[in-house]
Specification:
The chain is mainly β. It contains two helices and twelve strands, in the order H-E-E-E-E-E-E-E-E-E-E-E-E-H. A twelve-stranded antiparallel β-sheet has the order 6-5-4-3-2-1-12-11-10-9-8-7. The N terminus is likely disordered.
């Protein structure tokens, strides 16, 4: 009898040991498979504010004033990242914006904006209106309000792609972010006639900054014969395309 009792206890201890080993190995697998938290700085190099950085763009713009009345503008734009200034402990950079009609003309100062990266977001102050352009870390599942820092209506943005190649004409940027600023359409109650369209996107390249901006903000004619042809009544088409970038001291500017 005592021998049988000892044998049963040994078997019990052996089974218990196996269960403990299995439980321990499962715990190890979970710890290995756990995803590390995202780097809080992930994406900040795309909103590039290195001092003396400049970017040049070709701009094509159509301003629709009324049906069959519009102005078309073609010009060049240059952005220069300039002096640092600090307000309430937050550092920003002045952005000098210069324009010219073509490469045969000299650049003329058009306006001064500012931009900053503060903790979890990138902010651009454009014509005295602060816009929340990005949030960090970058993640294509995240959404944010572009107008959080101003009195405008909420405008929810999102990342369409991150750290992916983006082709622009003959150029391909190996690491780019595509931001969907707006993707809105509206139709009449009958669901046939489009009343307005607001499609906007911005593209940023790593260690360069903005490389493309394209906005379509149209209100369509909804009365009379033109209502059946999706004719623009008012609004704007705007496209900004990067043509050059470097640093001022490298260019001797």
């Amino acid at each position: 009898k005592p021998v049988i009792f000892t044998s049963m206890r040994s078997r019990f201890e052996y089974l218990l040991l196996i269960l403990l080993v299995i439980a321990s190995s499962c715990g190890s697998a979970n710890s290995v498979d756990a995803e590390p938290p995202l780097d809080p700085d992930l994406g900040k190099s795309y909103f590039f504010l290195a001092p003396n950085k400049y970017r040049e763009y070709n701009v094509y713009e159509i301003r629709y004033l009324a049906v069959d009345i519009s102005d078309t503008l073609v010009y060049q734009l240059r952005e220069e990242v300039r002096e640092e200034f600090i307000v309430n402990g937050i550092s920003s950079r002045l952005i000098h914006r210069l324009t010219r009609n073509n490469s045969n003309e000299t650049w003329r100062l058009d306006s001064v904006w500012s931009a900053r990266v503060e903790r979890e977001r990138a902010v651009s102050v454009e014509n005295n209106i602060p816009l929340q352009k990005m949030i960090f870390p970058v993640d294509t599942t995240r959404r944010w309000d572009r107008n959080l820092l101003n009195s405008g209506e909420s405008l929810v943005q999102k990342y369409l792609t991150f750290n992916q190649p983006y082709t622009q004409g003959f150029n391909t940027f190996l690491k780019a972010i595509v931001v969907e600023v707006s993707n809105e359409r509206s139709q009449n109650p009958d669901g046939i006639d489009v009343t307005f369209r607001d499609l906007r996107k911005e593209v940023y390249a790593d260690s360069i900054g903005l490389v493309e901006k394209e906005y379509e903000q149209f209100k369509f004619c909804t009365v009379g014969p033109c209502a059946l042809q999706e004719i623009v009544q008012s609004g704007r088409y705007y496209k900004e395309t990067l043509t050059a970038h470097s640093f001022l001291d490298e260019a001797g500017s």
